[in-house]
């Protein structure tokens, strides 16, 4: 399993003044920005831990200890991934009504990323389309947060989890 710090540091090494030239699908080439906040304070992490009776995944706590929120692949016209700071989690938590054990940790174009604190190991990361009204997770990932983040960075922000839709079962 890759470490979150190693993955983000590798991305930072490729940035020039916080910017990166990437290629999306259909040949679109765009300069995007990636920005990182200072680490979260221990008191903020403790406050977040009190949101749920379940234990937060250690690698998510590691992420907050590395950067209290960050943005990846912000383009000239928007898009990009916004991973919330602890304060932003509390702001978003009060705006939406997911199940009590789902904690919002980020967003992409209106869709929200949640931690499902009731989930089994490595099945806690959810990508949710809010129009589905929390009846089920839009995507529930069966990989760790550090693996997911590494794949997102390698895919330059593309929805790598949808690539499986391109596969055909010849069986």
Detailed description of the structure:
With 171 residues, the protein is an alpha+beta fold. 27% of the residues lie in helices and 23% in strands. It contains five helices and eight strands, in the order αββααββαββββα. The chain has helices at 4-14, 42-49, 58-66, 86-93, 145-154; strands at 19-23, 29-36, 70-74, 81-83, 102-108, 111-116, 125-128, 139-140. Helix 1 (4-14) runs parallel beside helix 5 and helix 2 packs parallel to helix 4 (86-93). The chain is globular.
Key traits:
171 residues; alpha+beta; eight-stranded antiparallel beta sheet; 5 helices
Q: Number of DSSP helices?
A: 5
**Mean pLDDT, all residues:** 86
Portion in helices? 25-40%
Uncertain residue segments: none
If you compute it from the alpha carbons, what radius of gyration comes out, rounded to the nearest whole angstrom?
A: 16 Å
Coarse structural class: alpha+beta
Widest β-sheet, arrangement of strands: 1-2-3-4-5-6-7-8
Major sheet: 8 strands, antiparallel
Overall 3D form: globular
Number of strands: 8
Order of helices and strands: HEEHHEEHEEEEH
């Amino acid at each position: 399993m890759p470490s979150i710090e190693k993955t983000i540091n590798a991305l930072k090494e490729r940035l020039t003044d916080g910017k990166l030239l990437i290629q999306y699908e259909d040949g679109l080439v765009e300069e995007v920005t990636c920005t990182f906040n200072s680490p979260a304070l221990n008191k903020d992490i403790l406050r977040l831990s009190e949101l749920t009776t379940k234990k937060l995944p250690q690698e998510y706590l590691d992420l907050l200890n590395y950067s209290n929120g960050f943005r990846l692949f912000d383009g000239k016209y928007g898009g990009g991934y916004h991973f919330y700071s602890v304060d932003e989690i509390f702001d978003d938590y009060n705006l939406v009504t997911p199940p009590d054990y789902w904690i919002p940790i980020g967003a992409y174009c209106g869709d929200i990323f949640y931690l499902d604190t009731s989930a089994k190991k490595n099945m806690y990361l959810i990508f949710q389309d809010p129009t589905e009204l929390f009846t089920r997770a839009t995507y529930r990932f069966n990989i760790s947060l550090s693996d997911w983040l590494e794949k997102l960075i390698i895919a330059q922000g593309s929805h790598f989890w949808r690539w499986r839709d391109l596969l055909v079962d010849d069986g």
